[in-house]
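Hello forum,

I keep getting stuck at the same step: I have a sequence, I want structure tokens, and every attempt I make locally crashes halfway through. Rather than fight my setup again tonight, could one of you with a working pipeline run this one for me? It's a single chain of 94 residues.
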Amino acid sequence: MKKVPAVTQVRVSLKDGLTVLDLKPANTVTLAQLRQIIKNNGFVSKDVAAVARGTIADQATFVVSGTNERLPLAAPAEPIGDAWRLTTPAPGKR
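Reply #2:
Ran it on my machine without issues. Output:
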């Protein structure tokens, strides 16, 4: 993950099965790209909690600014300043 230009910091807890990524502002990496990197390294991507800029397309979809990636929402997104706190389910889970 550290080789991905958009990533500024990576923190991993194998005990908790958790990876925390800090990304550069205005990056264009997609969640799909990050999930593919995780899969290629032999790990499974689960639900993602994120803070992102974008818009709510409908109650079940968030559109990320800059990439236009459409993310399914596991719960309603919450506004925090000029961004949103959201959770998107693991691939194949809805």
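The mean pLDDT is 92. If your local run keeps crashing, start a new thread with the error log.
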